[in-house]
Structures are given as C-alpha cells and as structure tokens.
Amino acid sequence: MKYSFLLSLLIGSVAASLPAINVTGNAFLNSETGERFYIRGVDYQPGGSSNLTDPLADVEVCSRDIPYFKDLGLNTIRVYSVDNTLSHFECMEKLADAGIYLILDVTTPGTSISRSNPGCSYNADFLQNIFATVDAFANYTNVLGFFAGNEVVNNEDVLFTAPYIKATVRDLKKYIKARNYRQIPVGYSAADVSSVRLELAKYLNCGNDSTARIDMLGVNDYSWCGHSSFTQSGYSEKVKMYSGYSVPMFLSEYGCNTQGTRQFSEVASIYSTQMSSVFSGGLVYEYSQEDSDYGLVEIDGDSVSTLDDYKNLRSMLNSTSDPQGSGGYSTSYKPSECPTDWNFTITVPDTPEDAQTYFENGAGAGYGFEAETQESCDYDDLSSVSSQSATPTDSSTASQSSTRASSSSSSPTTSSSSSRGVGTQMQASTFYSILMILSALLI
Q1: EC number(s) on record (predicted)?
Q2: Annotated catalytic, 151?
Q3: pLDDT for 183-197, tens place per residue?
Q4: Would you say 82 and 104 are in contact if contact means Cβ atoms under 8 Å apart?
Q5: Is the predicted pLDDT of residue 43 greater than 80, yes or no?
Q6: Which of 32, 60, 90, 151 is catalytic?
C-alpha cells in the first residue's frame, strides 16, 4: 500500500509531455510525426512592464488563461520574462496538457544586453542567470525554443551591439549541449527596422562557428494595418527579402492597432503558401490589455473579459488552415554571408573566463527578477566600446518598437520573493528512474 501511494504521487508529479519541435532546414517539424509545425500563438505577460510578474509560476493565473488559449486555437505562447527562483512545473504541465508550446525569452529587465554598454553587460553574472533559466525549463518538451534577446538593435546607431547577441546565442547553445539537454533552438527576436533588418538577420546567421549562429529568427512586425493586403502591407517584399534564409523565421509579434479594432486579416496570408516557404507562423501581440492597448482580453483579478480583437482573431485562426504538405520549406539553404562594410568589429567576443565553470558544473540557483547584472564588470578590463552613440537604456527597458511598447520594455520591478530559490528542476529521467524502481518493488 505504501509503495502504491508513493508511485501514484510520482506519476502525478511527472509532467505531461508533447513531442519536441525540431529545426529542419528553414522549418519547424514535429519530432514524432515529421509534420511541419506552424506557430499559432500570442505574446503573454499579464501585468505588462508596469507590474512584472511570472505568469508561469502562478498556477491560478495560468489556469485562468489556458482555456482562452485553447478557445483561440493556439499552439504556442511567448513569455518575455520569468522568475528563475520559482517553480513552473504546474503551469508547464497544464500547457502541455492543452497542447501548447512555449517560446521563452531568457533575459529579464535587469539581466540583458545593454545598448549603451554591451561589453559590460555581457559578463559572467549575466550568463549565470540566463543559464539558470535554461536549467529551469530545459526538461520540458513543450519548450519550443529560447530567445537570447529582444530588440537589442532597435535602430542603426546601436548595431554595434550585434556581436554580443551572437555571443549570448553561442553561450546558450554551448550550455545546453554541455549540460546534456536536448537540442533546444536558440534564437533572437528582432525589431523590424528597415535600415538594418536584413543585414542584422544575415549577421546573426553567418560565420563558420555554427554555435554562434541562431537556430531561429523572430521578427516583430506591425506593417499590416487595418484592411491591408499581402502586397500593400509589404509582406510580399519581406518574403522576397528573406527568401533563402537557412533557419526558421516567424513573426514574434504582429497585430498593428493604429486603425482601431483589429480584424487580423493578415492571418490568411501568414498561414498560406504565399509566406510558408519563408515564415512559420506568428504570435499576436498581446494576450492581456495593458497600457499600450494591444490586448485581446481584459483581466480583473480572476475575471477575464474577451474584447473584439479576441473574437476577430479566433474567427480568423479557426477559419484558416495551415498549408498542406511541406509548405515549400528547404533543407538546402546555406548560412548567410557575413557583412564586410560595418565600421566596427564583427568578431564575436570570447566567453567571460569566470563563466567557464558553468558549462562543466552547472549554473546553480538563479536570482530571478532581483538580478541586476548589467554593470557586473571590471571597467578597467573592458575593451573600448564603439564610439557610436546609443540611448542610455538596456534592451529590455526601452521602447521596443515605433508602434508599441513591449511587455519586456520596463525598468525592473521588485520581485514578490526575496529568496534566491533553486533555479534548476529535477530532470524527467530521474522521475522515470524512480518510477521504474518503485514499480519493481510492487511486483
């Protein structure tokens, strides 16, 4: 009886799993069925930047919202910031039960690459905290991928930060491999800045070191406004522009709100063969109504009220099917050519020496929303930063787009927990090993 009770507890503690989503060529594929996977999602950070909380650490919050995700027909959410000192087990299990994957930004307002001083903000403490976030989520098979940064480059004057984005991507991929996790895609979410968008995309996907190349690229794009079209919106030109890009691309934010209630007519093009040879779906900005007025729902405590935008998006998603077959993806595209005309070095910085131990020994516990790592450097040892001017803000604290302010675009707020906590989760294999032992004892 005792063993049966323990066995039932352990079975109830093992998270439901979904087939991992893999990168094949410039597409996402379901690892079990081999079918093409298109992201149908929303950006999710209730409370926004003014009240930064972790929606995946509060089971009441995620339980409140997951039924609406299902009603919309979603298969993915993106979360901009999480507290790596807290447990996410229950919410990740509920998402998996609902068939929903997660794209997670591993940075927080206090731990991200600074536009004004990227060399200082890229340091061992920064890496320790984002590695701890990887530890907290890597064993959930419904983690589709990690973003190493969001709109760090938001104008051409801060393009010199790009090598530090690549360094962060490289270190995340090295850490995932060193800790024997599955091969989880690591990418970047880019602002749609016309003067640099293509050359930045190429740079992030260039070079002989495959670990420093992104596995996926998200684009925050608000160019389809109102009753537009595939041609009028500029979507057609972007498909041509990115044609031949060798890794999966998707819209990591979309949904222009400059013309009132959004009809989401772009959905019909996003999930069509007009775009499927280059793009693999997208995420609508955003789930909850915040100060920037992009919400699909109004939240008041435990109560959720759907808005007209919600109803229009649900109608469009439910009436639009994914393209049949492969959707025109390719496995023959090559990495991009590196730029040769930038007026600063494109060399990817070396990993900080003090961070080398994490690859072998693990990152240990994270510091959650209380972490402040942007100035954790020795200024005397820093090489000179580009002389180009930059706004004195970090990539998580400035305006994220000319059309809206992202959920991750605030100064850090005080966490509700002051404890460091434990950032790592028990590996799933450990659960199953214990289950097998207890099963044997019952025989």
Answers
A1: 2.4.1.-
A2: yes
A3: 999 999 999 999 999
A4: yes
A5: yes
A6: 151
